[in-house]
Amino acid sequence: MSIIYSLIARGTTVLVDYTESSGNFQQITGSILQKIPLHDDTKCTYVSGSYHFHVIVDDGLVYLCMADEDFGKRQPYAFLEEIKRRFVNSSLKQRAISAHAYEFRRDFGQVLASQMSLYSDPGYDDSDQIAKVRKEVNEVKDVMTQNIEKVLERGEKIDVLVGKTEELDHSSQVFHRQAKRLRREMWWKNKKICLILVFVVAIIIAVIVLAILGVEGKL
């Protein structure tokens, strides 16, 4: 149970994001950003399978994080409130109006990383922050929850694919080892075929030579 992915965006332009996983959730969040109304400050949660995409819209900026369903809403929203507070109190808030996509990765990426790690700990308890979130969102029970498929107005089911980077690295290493072994086996197989062909050709030549010598001997 953890916060898997987070971002801050201006409309559909992602200014900064962070994750230690890989998957198609960046594509899905891109679709979600197109549907989020920016004219009103709001809080809402989008659901896809066993993953929840929690959103806070404030002053035209979108603060979003993706978390496991079992992680609940309290800590994800506490996390979003904290990164919103840090972002608003930084000089980046003024620059956000005209910033390019992913321009703040260097300036704010590590903030997302550290806070994601902190708030992903089920035992973490920032009493002041949790109390603030509890008051602001009423234990987040009233936060609007919608199914992603309905929001995106699509008929097909959307599957969120998430894989740990280390798992992908391991799979890649296994693949390379298997490919190397296969290449070695194919090399030996080709060598054996070549040796057999050479041996067969040598026998044929020997038979022909012996046949010619036999004919000449009779003459």
From TrEMBL:
PROSITE patterns: LONGIN (PS50859), SYNAPTOBREVIN (PS00417), V_SNARE (PS50892). It is a single-pass type IV membrane protein. Residues 129-189 form the V-SNARE coiled-coil homology domain. GO terms for biological process: exocytosis; protein transport; vesicle fusion. Its main location: membrane. GO terms for molecular function: SNAP receptor activity; SNARE binding. The keyword Chloroplast does not apply. Pfam families: Longin, Synaptobrevin. GO terms for cellular component: endoplasmic reticulum membrane; Golgi apparatus; late endosome membrane; lysosomal membrane; phagocytic vesicle membrane; SNARE complex; transport vesicle membrane. Residues 7-112 form the Longin domain. InterPro entries: Longin-like_dom_sf, Longin_dom, Synaptobrevin-like, Synaptobrevin-like_transport, V_SNARE_CC. The chain crosses the membrane at residues 193-215. It is found in: Cytoplasmic vesicle, Phagosome membrane; Cytoplasmic vesicle, Secretory vesicle membrane; Endoplasmic reticulum membrane; Golgi apparatus, trans-Golgi network membrane. Keywords: Coiled coil, Membrane, Protein transport, Transmembrane, Transmembrane helix, Transport. The keyword Transmembrane applies. Belongs to the synaptobrevin family. This is Vesicle-associated membrane protein 7. It comes from Pocillopora damicornis (Cauliflower coral).
